[in-house]
Amino acid sequence: MLDQPTNERRLTIARAMAEAMQQEMQRDPSVFVMGEDIAGFGGIFGNTRGLFEEFGKERVRDTPISETGFISAAVGAAMDGMRPVVELMFVDFFGVCFDAIYNQMAKNTYFAGANASVPMVLMTSTGGGYSDAGQHSQCLYGTFAHLPGMKVVSPSNAYDAKGLMTAAIRDDNPVVYMYHKGLQGMGWLGTEAGATVNTPEEEYTVEIGKAKVVRKGTDVTLVGLAMGVHNALKAADKLAEDGISAEVVDLVSLVPLDRETVINSVAKTGRLIVVDEDYHSYGVSGEIIASVTEHDISKLKASPARVTFPDVPIPYARNMEQFCLPNPDKIIDAYRKM
Amino acid sequence: MQPTKEQLLWMYENMVVSRRFEEAVEKAYLEGKAPAFNMANGPIPGEMHLSNGQEPVAVGVCAHLDANDIVTATHRPHHQAIAKGVDLKKMAAEIFGKSTGLSGGRGGHMHLIDPAVNFSCSGIIGESCGPACGAALSRKMQNKPGVAVAFLGEGAANQGAFHEALNLAGAWDLPVVFVIEDNSWGISVPKSEATAVARNDVRAAGYDMPGHYIPGNDPYAIFDIAGEAIARARDGKGPTLIEVETYRLAGHFMGDAEQYRPEGEKDALFAKDPIPKMRERLLADGHAAKDLDELETRAEARVTEAITFARDSAYAPDTDALTAVFV
Ligand SMILES: Cc1ncc(C[n+]2csc(CCOP(=O)(O)OP(=O)(O)O)c2C)c(N)n1
């Protein structure tokens, strides 16, 4: 793993993902990419741009709209020596193909007593905020992370995006790679500027299963992933104006989950707020809070809080959706109530 | 099956309403999205899939349906909704995210549900097929009249859901008709590269039902074949699969640069625009220009009224987001 470079080479997450795939495809002929509109179109969210031109249609395959077919095909190919990177265009579409994902991709290694492996990456877009309504805006982090047998990562910036993609492709296990549309650097979705960061040209990996303290602080720990990290950083900036020092932990990976980094941070600050764009109940926020409290509840000076999406389908109308989404002000409110 | 004069004019009028509606939506959608195009902005945010060019399919089929029949539709649902008789004002208001919309702004343009006319749609590709089977089954079990029509794109015909639903319909002899709108593109992927067969009508054989392919985006031919299929379903003779060649005159969604289209394709499609074509044919068949002009004016007025209603309506209170999860 490289340190953050000092030279300026700012990439969007979309470009960082594409560059990682490009380099891995150059290095390893068993890597190939498939999904809907990922060839000539370059991916609806730009993350496969340039691959088709360089590697051609044998290794960069547009698929029919047959998610069960091509995702389970990826499982079969992965078990037969290939390293497919397969795209589920929106995570919301998991409903039409989940058997391929959680009954096959996630379990075959175990069913083989680890004598077989399923080295594949399932990349999929997450997140709302642009009024795409209830079938195109979900995060579903908890849904995927709940099920054993697949690693789950979600970058908050381009540096991590590239390193995680490289690590995911090289991993001998299935990795679900969830990229948030609002961080992608696609102007037509609006974009979080903080996600576009210096990204080295050379190959590197970001460790899957390791959280990062992205801002140091002493009064409260804000834990998030993907868009949640940016909301937490903005809240931390505002809290700092009032002399409150917030530490921000970017989970980076949900499976494996780096509980230790969170626990260590809370041990220092005594306060915990989890920011999660996924639904409130039965999800990441509950898991993080349980991990901290079951470890040592005495470290907490106040009840932990979570800023999450309420347990309702994602509404279309802008005002209703924005009302439901986490934002920095809600994080600050949660802190004030502690 | 030949349309009566009333049916013909109904079809033409609904095609015009649909087109004017899409033009008005397009205009409103672009408000607030310049100079930088950001989907999140403007009076109509989010994705927008227009149906310009595909109107003949909706009207040719729905001319045979009444409010009691069921339509399950797609992510590109406006023409289908209009032809099925969905309240235009409530539909417009929904698209603008207003409290007066079909769902009070919760669903948006891909999630138009109007129980008054048994219309629903889904943004998940292929998901119109199963619910149509279920509705058809329900009518059978309750001994109630009515048929179900599932609309889908040619790309959706590669989904498992399509094949499972067809098998169900065939095995249970359900009063359902599957109508594939073949606009030859699934976003950027051409039918020829994604589909194992050139025409989806042949797939009907695998599910023991008649299959038809209708070339030319021709409302008269669609009326004819759909009429027979729907009559067959009403008579208890089981399901039918129809594929219609149609044209998507717009991008996949608004903001689509359409670089995947071969040079000149759009021009060729616009030259075959079904609305002026139908007008010409109506005139040639002796319909008075004045009548058609009047009808067009009326269509325009309906659209203007609906869009004005939508714009003038209020947004729901933010907290409405938390209601209507359960009845
Ligand atoms: C299950 C699922 N997969 C993928 C998508 C993304 N998607 C939306 S529209 C579309 C193309 C659909 O093509 P077709 O069925 O031919 O309909 P058309 O858009 O041409 O009207 C795709 C792939 C989706 N909405 N649902």
Number of H- or I-type helical stretches of chain B: 11
Helical content of chain B, roughly? 40-55%
The CATH class assignment of chain B is Alpha Beta
Bound molecules: thiamine diphosphate
Based on the structure given, which CATH architecture of the largest domain in chain A is correct?
3-Layer(aba) Sandwich
* Helix fraction of chain A by DSSP (H/I, runs of at least 4): 25-40%
CATH superfamily of the largest domain in chain A: Thiamin diphosphate (ThDP)-binding fold, Pyr/PP domains
* Number of self-contained structural domains of chain A: 2
Low-confidence segments of chain A, given as residue ranges, are none
Low-confidence stretches of chain B: none
Let me know the average pLDDT of chain A.
97
What is the rounded Rg of chain B? 19 Å
Largest interface: A-B, 43 and 48 residues
Quaternary organization: heterodimer
Care to count the β-strands of chain B? 8
CATH architecture title of chain B: 3-Layer(aba) Sandwich
Number of E-state strands of chain A: 14
**CATH class annotation of the largest domain in chain A:** Alpha Beta
Secondary-structure class of chain B: alpha/beta
Written account of the structure:
The complex is a heterodimer of chains A (338) and B (327). In chain A, helix 1 (13-27) packs parallel to helix 7 and helix 3 packs parallel to helix 4. With 338 residues, chain A is of the alpha/beta class. Chain A folds into two domains: 10-198, Rossmann fold; 212-336, Rossmann fold, CATH 3.40.50.920. Chain A has a seven-stranded mixed β-sheet, with helices on both faces. A five-stranded mixed β-sheet of chain A has the order 9-11-10-13-14, with helices on both faces. Chain A has a two-stranded antiparallel ribbon with strand order 1-8. Chain A has twelve helices and 14 strands. Chain B is α/β, with parallel strands linked by helices and 327 residues long. Chain B has a single domain, classed as Rossmann fold (3-Layer(aba) Sandwich), CATH 3.40.50. Chain B is 42% helix and 10% strand. Chain B is built from eleven helices and eight strands. Chain B has helices spanning 5-30, 55-62, 78-84, 88-95, 129-141, 160-172, 191-194, 219-234, 265-271, 274-284, 289-312; strands at residues 70-73, 119-121, 148-153, 176-182, 185-186, 189-190, 211-214, 240-245. In chain B, the strands form two sheets. In chain B, strands 2-1-3-4-8-7 form a six-stranded parallel β-sheet, sandwiched between helices. In chain B, strands 5-6 form a two-stranded antiparallel sheet. In chain B, helix 8 (219-234) links the parallel strand 7 (211-214) and strand 8 (240-245). In chain B, helix 1 crosses helix 2 (55-62) and helix 1 runs antiparallel to helix 10. The longest helix of chain B is centred in the first third of the chain and has 26 residues, at 5-30. Chain B starts with a helix and ends in a 15-residue tail after the last helix. The chains are: A alpha/beta (338), B alpha/beta (327). The interface between A and B is large, with 43 and 48 residues. Thiamine diphosphate (TPP) sits between chains B (75-76, 123-125, 153-156, 183, 185-187, 248, 252) and A (36, 65, 67, 89, 93, 96).
